[in-house]
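ok so for the tutorial part 2 we go from a plain amino acid sequence to predicted structure tokens. step 1 is just haveing the sequence, like this:
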Amino acid sequence: LGVVTFLSIFLALFKRDMHLLQQSDWGDYLLGSRHMSFAKDGMRHKDQHSSSHTDWKLVKDMVETPSHIFFFLSSTSTVIFVPKRIFTNEQDQDHFIAATKAWMRAAQASDA
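step 2 — the prediction. this is what the tokens look like for a chain of 112 residues:
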């Protein structure tokens, strides 16, 4: 119950903040085009100003809601989220979830 409540509050605040941000001068800088890729060695993020790589070993948990997939990082209070609307069909979504879970398990096993 705690995680569901947290995610509900997080999404409500996120939507409010995004609306306010879109109207500010920072909107284009912070909300511009982004590219995320997911592979066996981790997650990659790239935008017009930066790029980063997050190893699966740093992902503490993955939580799925009806509209999003959340990745909680272990070293910080960072949450990476993937909106489910990006998937063209449920089969692609299921494949993504299965693959990321397998990569997370493999990273945790190799770290033990």
